Amino acid sequence: MKKTNHLLQKVFSYLTHVTLLICFLIYSAPALAKRPPEIRNQEDLNLSQDMHGQDLNGLEFVKYDLRGFDFSESNLNGTVFNNSNLNKSDFHGANMQDALAYASNFDEANLSDVNFTNALLMESTFEEANIDGADFTDAVISRIQQKQLCSLATGTNTTSGVDTIYSLGC
């Protein structure tokens, strides 16, 4: 009888430890997951008006005022601009594949020759933006945005060789 009780205690102890380990792994996994860096203020990244040619792959700019910034020729692949002000910014020749620009202001921005392939551009504005040669292939935009951008569409993207008007489905 003592041997059986001792064996049951060992089994119970083992199961308790396994259960605690499983709970730890389940509840700590989201905290251990890799998150992209989020830019909330200038101290997080050495931001300057001149970001020309920089690798900003996967960064998140949340509610950031980036008016007049120079992002030309930069790698912005997978970058997030969430509620950001990009008015009059220069993105000429930037790679914005798989980028997310939700409710961001691209008014009067230079978006010439930008690669927006697979980008999510919902609720963003593009008033008087220069989109000459921009590639919007498989980008997600609203019907209203598409109509507005089609009225501005000219040129061919120098990297992909796709006409802007074709990539917008005009």
How is the secondary structure organized here?
Blueprint: H1 2-32, E1 38-39, E2 60-62, E3 80-82, E4 100-102, H2 143-152, H3 164-167
Parallel strand pairs: 1-2, 2-3, 3-4
The rough form would be described as: globular
The proportion of residues in beta strands is 5-15%
The structure class reads alpha/beta
| Total strands | 4
Number of helices: 3
What is the terminal-to-terminal distance?
A: 83 Å
The tally of domains stands at: 2
Considering the chains and any ligands shown, give keywords for the structure.
4 strands, four-stranded parallel sheet, 170 residues, 26% helix, 3 helices
Short recap of the structure:
This protein has 170 residues and is α/β, with parallel strands linked by helices. The protein contains three helices and four strands, in the order H-E-E-E-E-H-H.
Notes on the protein architecture:
The chain has 170 residues and is α/β, with parallel strands linked by helices. It has two domains: 1-33; 35-170. The protein has three helices and four strands, in the order αββββαα. The chain has a four-stranded parallel β-sheet with strand order 1-2-3-4, with no helix packed on it. It is globular and about 65 Å long. The relative contact order is 0.10. Residues 28-43 have low confidence and may be disordered.
